[in-house]
Amino acid sequence: MTKKIVIKIGGTAAAQLTPAFFETIKNWQKQHAKIVIVHGGGNHISSLMAQLNEPIQKINGIRFTTQNGINITKMALLGQVQPALIEAFRQNAVSAIGLNAGSNQLLTGHVLDQDVYGYVGAIHQVNTQLIHNMWQQHLVPIIAPLAISNDGQWLNVNADHAATAIAKYLQADELYLLTDVSGVKVSGNILQELTPEKALELQTSNIITGGMIPKINSALDAVQRGVHNVHITNTVTHPGTIVTL
Ligand SMILES: Nc1ncnc2c1ncn2[C@@H]1O[C@H](COP(=O)(O)OP(=O)(O)O)[C@@H](O)[C@H]1O
Ligand SMILES: CC(=O)N[C@@H](CCC(=O)OP(=O)(O)O)C(=O)O
């Protein structure tokens, strides 16, 4: 059976992709795996916001986003981060196509909690047919973490949440959350495995903080929705922390 693999590449991880990463992608493709990339870029959004004097505020790893913040987020993700990734894929001879929420209604969402997060979205619909069409053309979709609401409002979506939603709607077999650390750390050691009980314990004791919170919640959500293999790691060649039930 054809394996479906979703790889989320965080903003820092995107700048550190190695030849081994692209070799792995090509090997998976030879084995007829279907691959989707969801990119982050929080670091680029923050530096553009700083340049444009937009306040930066995060609540449990989620960015509070004003309407001006949404405009800046689109500039960073669609103007900087996605083109750089597309170029990296081209240089490494992997055929890819950049997509966003507006690509034939790829990602539709609703406001998560306007009072708490502003224009931040949760995805409730994915045009999976478009992704299947791209796969038929042997293209790797590279998708930005944005959604559009039913009434046309663009929304900022945490990239871990976006990758999980896409993995769920595609009924993916594997989800890799690539970040700047090689897994979930406890007292300096990388956990090989993480269960929901352990995750709760680590969150309440403040061992899991900041951007690791949405990552772990996303990973658990994905496993609960039937994605068999979920990894938090810094490279596809290393399993990192495997999230299980
Ligand atoms: N227990 C933990 N183990 C590893 N990283 C953690 C932990 N708690 C918090 N973090 C932080 O989470 C960061 C990864 O989240 P984030 O910066 O949002 O990455 P990304 O941009 O790749 O999504 C790590 O660099 C680290 O600073
Ligand atoms: C709502 C929200 O938090 N959106 C994220 C989207 C980018 C992201 O998640 O990028 P990383 O994966 O590199 O952290 C943000 O504005 O930073």
UniProtKB/TrEMBL annotation:
Lineage of the species this protein comes from: Bacteria, Bacillati, Bacillota, Bacilli, Lactobacillales
Record GO terms (molecular function): acetylglutamate kinase activity; ATP binding
Family the entry assigns: Belongs to the acetylglutamate kinase family. ArgB subfamily.
Domain Aspartate/glutamate/uridylate kinase: 3-234
Catalytic activity as recorded in UniProt: N-acetyl-L-glutamate + ATP = N-acetyl-L-glutamyl 5-phosphate + ADP
InterPro entries: AceGlu_kinase-like_sf (IPR036393), AcgluKinase_fam (IPR004662), ArgB (IPR037528), Asp/Glu/Uridylate_kinase (IPR001048)
Binding residues annotated for substrate, in chain numbering: G41, G42, R63, N156
The protein's name in its UniProt record: Acetylglutamate kinase
Pfam name, any one: AA_kinase
Keywords: Amino-acid biosynthesis, Arginine biosynthesis, ATP-binding, Cytoplasm, Kinase, Nucleotide-binding, Transferase
Function: Catalyzes the ATP-dependent phosphorylation of N-acetyl-L-glutamate.
Any one Gene Ontology BP term: L-arginine biosynthetic process via ornithine
